[in-house]
């Protein structure tokens, strides 16, 4: 029970902290017209990330570390790599 | 035979007749030429289908990528039997991972992506069974992943994912669904997805014996949010929840017992709940052709393992078509609460225990460099190198080559 | 509950508002430069081309959807230029050096004009790429579309007084 309470408390703090970031981000929200997104389409920006490269590094990290998830991909199972 | 003599008056008439005939022939030629010119002028332009490209529409490949990644790792872990009974064993291994991605455009609103990853793992010792699960020192694995995207409207997108993975004593199948909604002129996107993974594998023992087959399942859900903060800034955050159940331990792993004369089988709890939260930001600096990226993730699970991950990247254009990337990643995790490198002799055989170095308490650092050459059009060629180091005795060098892009 | 309310406020704050300006019915008189550096307004360009119907393609080098439209516009221009159709490319938001580098690698047979500061695009009320405009000789915009599709092509042909 104590471990669960710690887990819940840590999660609540983290979620609220994240929301503060989101709120401050929302106050800085700018509507970027679609024809002004040339920099967002740059190869160095996230929208252009190489999916195969991300897959390879994710596979390495989840095989050699205990943490996984929060990247939109399944966390757990799928291989005999101990994930 | 003598030539026939023709009277003078008839010769003049014949010449006129020839002239008239030649004139008529020329007129016929001119008339036919005019006809064809006129016909060409009034010819129908290309059909609508040809203009719009519908004659070659339909299913076509619009993206192709190849990547070859090699991982060379060396270290020691107590779960490995490639050492003394009580001591850590070798985790040295070479992993070669070719991958291919094919993008298939079925229509303006339906797109498919097929990824085929192959893993070829070879260990320095047949006893390093943390990496391989076969008597030989080489393990091969192959998978296929199909991700489909359906644009229901300009703002709503549905995705589906089916994965199959096969390696020597292990098979896995997975399927998932996702939905995303774009808001405020695509300035914000909210997404939700779920995935179910089913694993089936031989129940190998530390001595290599097989005791039937075991199963495990993983149910995963994700929430994501992306926001354009400016024409040069992107922020995204996501949360992932995973619930696993079944035989979760790596059955051929073992744990040294106190006294140094024997080892016990690894044993995990039958379920595991995992939480992860991540936030990322990317900022492009047009004046210097630089992009800065940062990411942070917090993870915690019911095994009492919690971890922090911080990543930083600097992308810099060296030339208009040559992009360099430097990266640094810091990772710190607490160990699971049943980790032990010397299990007390009186430990109950039903009590969870592990000596897996991946689940111990450690800090890890990774730094890397990548060069990306933007070839003509949407294609690119890249080479990268990373060095990963854990303070509990694992080092790895990763080299990767990639080619491909849009077609 | 506090977290849910925060999320809702955040999402509403970000999702509210639309920056789309009103669309104009006729071509604004905005001076542009051609990709070869000559400065002239779009009206002067249309007058010089003396076409009966003009198709204007708003595009950018970084826009992958624009890249898919370009071959269609090339075929359209080749098919109907003799019937009085004129096709003009209007690059939005990029410098001459970037556009000319692109044109050096990709053959574009129709004239390309530059709108590096978004003056004409904003005056047109257009925020999306690509955008296809169909313009009558008097400058009246009779059709707007995100791509050269069957509906747009049918309208062009009707304006050129061709049988469907």
Main features:
heterotrimer; B: 407 residues; mainly beta; Porin; 16-stranded antiparallel beta barrel; two-stranded antiparallel sheet; 2 helices; 19 strands; 10% helix; elongated; disordered N terminus; C: 164 residues; alpha/beta; Glutaredoxin; seven-stranded mixed β-sheet; 6 helices; 7 strands; globular
Structure notes:
The complex is a heterotrimer of chains A (83), B (407) and C (164). Chain A is mainly alpha-helical. Chain A is built from 2 helices and no strands. Chain A has helices at residues 2-27, 51-64. Chain A is elongated, with a radius of gyration of 18 Å. Chain A starts with a helix and ends in a 19-residue tail after the last helix. The mean pLDDT of chain A is 75. By secondary structure, chain B is mainly beta. Chain B has a 16-stranded antiparallel barrel. Chain B has a two-stranded antiparallel ribbon with strand order 11-12. In chain B, a hairpin with a 3-residue loop joins strand 18 and strand 19. Chain C is of the alpha/beta class and 164 residues long. Chain C has a single domain, classed as Glutaredoxin (3-Layer(aba) Sandwich). Chain C contains 6 helices and 7 strands; from the N terminus they run H-E-E-H-E-H-E-H-E-H-E-E-H. Chain C has helices at 2-15, 42-49, 64-80, 96-105, 119-124, 150-159; strands at 31-34, 39-41, 53-59, 85-92, 112-115, 131-135, 141-145. The chains are: A mainly alpha (83), B mainly beta (407), C alpha/beta (164). At the A-B interface, helix 1 and helix 2 of A face strand 1, strand 3, strand 4, strand 6 and strand 7 of B.
Strand and helix layout:
The complex is a heterotrimer of chains A (83), B (407) and C (164).
Chain A: H1 2-27, H2 51-64
Chain B: H1 8-41, H2 48-52, E1 60-77, E2 89-90, E3 93-105, E4 110-123, E5 138-151, E6 156-167, E7 170-183, E8 188-204, E9 210-230, E10 233-246, E11 254-256, E12 263-265, E13 271-285, E14 290-301, E15 306-319, E16 322-333, E17 362-374, E18 379-390, E19 394-406
Antiparallel strand pairs in B: 1-2, 1-3, 1-19, 3-4, 4-5, 5-6, 6-7, 7-8, 8-9, 9-10, 10-13, 11-12, 13-14, 14-15, 15-16, 16-17, 17-18, 18-19
Chain C: H1 2-15, E1 31-34, E2 39-41, H2 42-49, E3 53-59, H3 64-80, E4 85-92, H4 96-105, E5 112-115, H5 119-124, E6 131-135, E7 141-145, H6 150-159
Parallel strand pairs in C: 3-4, 4-5
Antiparallel strand pairs in C: 1-2, 1-5, 3-6, 6-7
């Amino acid at each position: 029970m104590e471990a669960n309470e710690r887990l819940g408390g840590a999660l609540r703090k983290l979620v609220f902290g994240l929301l503060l970031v989101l709120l401050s981000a929302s106050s800085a929200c700018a509507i970027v017209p679609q024809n002004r997104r040339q920099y967002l389409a740059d190869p160095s920006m996230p929208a252009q990330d190489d999916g195969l490269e991300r897959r390879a590094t994710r596979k390495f990290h989840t095989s050699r570390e205990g943490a996984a998830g929060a990247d939109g991909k399944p966390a757990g199972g799928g291989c005999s790599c101990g994930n | 035979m003598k030539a026939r003599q023709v009277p003078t008056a008839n010769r003049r008439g014949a010449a006129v007749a020839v002239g008239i005939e030649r004139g008529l022939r020329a007129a016929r030629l001119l008339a036919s030429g005019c006809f064809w010119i006129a016909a060409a002028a009034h010819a129908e332009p290309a059909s609508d289908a040809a203009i719009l490209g519908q004659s070659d529409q339909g299913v076509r490949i619009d993206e192709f990528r190849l990547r070859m990644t090699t991982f060379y790792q060396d270290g020691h872990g107590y779960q490995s039997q490639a050492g003394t009974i009580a001591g850590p064993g070798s985790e040295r291994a070479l992993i070669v991972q070719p991958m291919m991605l094919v993008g298939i455009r079925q229509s303006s609103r339906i797109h498919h992506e097929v990824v085929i990853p192959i893993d070829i793992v070879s260990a320095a010792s047949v006893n390093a069974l943390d990496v391989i699960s076969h008597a030989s020192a080489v393990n091969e694995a192959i998978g296929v992943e199909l991700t489909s995207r359906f644009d229901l409207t300009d703002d709503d997108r549905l995705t589906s994912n089916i994965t199959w993975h096969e390696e020597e004593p292990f098979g896995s199948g997975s399927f998932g669904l996702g939905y995303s909604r774009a808001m405020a002129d695509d300035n914000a996107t909210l997404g939700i997805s779920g995935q179910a993974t089913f694993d089936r594998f031989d129940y190998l023992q530390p001595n290599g014996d097989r005791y039937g087959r075991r199963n495990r399942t993983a149910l995963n859900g994700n929430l994501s949010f992306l926001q354009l903060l400016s024409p040069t800034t992107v922020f995204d955050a996501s949360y992932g929840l995973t619930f696993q159940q079944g035989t979760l331990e790596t059955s051929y792993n073992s744990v040294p017992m106190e006294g140094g004369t024997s080892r016990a089988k690894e044993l995990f709890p039958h379920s595991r709940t995992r939480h992860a939260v991540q936030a990322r930001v990317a900022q492009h600096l047009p004046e210097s052709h630089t992009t800065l990226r940062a990411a942070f993730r917090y993870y915690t699970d019911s095994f009492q393992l919690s971890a922090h991950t911080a990543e930083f990247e600097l992308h810099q254009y060296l030339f208009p078509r040559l992009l360099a990337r430097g990266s640094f990643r810091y990772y710190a995790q607490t160990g699971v609460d049943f980790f032990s490198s010397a299990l007390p002799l009186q430990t109950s055989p039903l009590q969870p225990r592990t000596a897996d170095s991946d689940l111990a308490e450690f800090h890890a650092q990774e730094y890397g460099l990548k060069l990306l050459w933007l070839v003509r059009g949407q294609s690119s060629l890249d080479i990268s190198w990373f060095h990963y180091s854990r303070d509990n005795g694992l080092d790895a060098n990763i080299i990767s080559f990639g080619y491909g892009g849009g077609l | 509950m506090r977290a849910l309310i925060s999320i809702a406020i955040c999402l509403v704050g970000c999702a509210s508002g639309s920056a789309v300006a009103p669309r104009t019915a006729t071509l604004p008189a905005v001076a542009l430069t051609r990709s070869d550096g000559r400065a002239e307004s779009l009206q002067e360009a249309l007058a010089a081309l003396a076409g009966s119907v003009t198709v204007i393609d708003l595009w950018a080098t970084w826009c992958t959807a624009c890249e898919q439209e370009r071959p269609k516009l090339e075929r359209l221009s080749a098919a109907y230029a003799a019937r009085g159709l004129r096709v003009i490319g209007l690059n939005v938001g990029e410098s001459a050096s970037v556009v000319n580098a692109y044109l050096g690698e990709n053959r574009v047979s129709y004239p390309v004009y530059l709108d590096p500061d978004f003056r004409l695009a904003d005056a047109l009320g257009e925020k999306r790429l690509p955008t296809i405009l169909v313009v009558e000789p008097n400058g009246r915009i009779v059709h707007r579309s995100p791509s050269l599709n069957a509906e747009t092509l049918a309208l062009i042909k009707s304006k050129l007084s061709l049988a469907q």
